[in-house]
Amino acid sequence: MVPEKLQTIVDTFQHAPKQLRLQLLLEYSKKVPPLPESLAQNRAELEQVHECQTPFFIATEVEHERVHFFFDAPPEAPTTRGFAGVLSEGLSGLSPDEVLATPDNFYEDLKLGEVISPLRLRGMTAIMGRLKRQVREHQGLE
Q: How far apart are CA 92 and CA 99, in angstroms?
């Protein structure tokens, strides 16, 4: 089930005309918060998602039963950063169970397949897989 915060974003994309969806994704690229100082200085704590065409790194923290995601992607990769912005806004702060219950392919409902390449979509699948694996590791499930 798509969490309410994320569903609001999905609805926005679904109602946007095709020609505006890419622009909307690019707007989300500006919403990726900078890495906290602790991660910026200790990049070994970040996991690279090698399936992405550009260098893309993630880290996950679970505190007080709330998940927080941290992303690092170059500004020259606005579509990948945009997806990170969607995830940051739609999933950060949720419980581990809510994150784990989110469908791996929820991004299909964003209708991005009509405006970005299949290779980029494959990267999105890999990002979701890494995020969920990291959450499961924090929960002691892996």
A: 9
Per-residue pLDDT of 103-125, as tens digits, reads 988 888 999 888 888 888 888 88
Q: Which domains are assigned to the chain?
A: 4-138 (3.90.1010.10)
Residue 136, both tokens: 């499961």
For residue 85, the model assigns a pLDDT of 95
SS (H, E, C) the chain: CCCHHHHHHHHHHHHCCHHHHHHHHHHHHCCCCCCCHHHHHCHHHCEECCCCCCCCEEEEEEECCEEEEEEECCCCCHHHHHHHHHHHHHHCCCCHHHHHHCCCCHHHHHCHHHCCCHHHHHHHHHHHHHHHHHHHHHCCCC
Q: Phi/psi of residue 86, each to 5°?
A: -60, -45
Structure confidence at residue 40 (pLDDT): 92
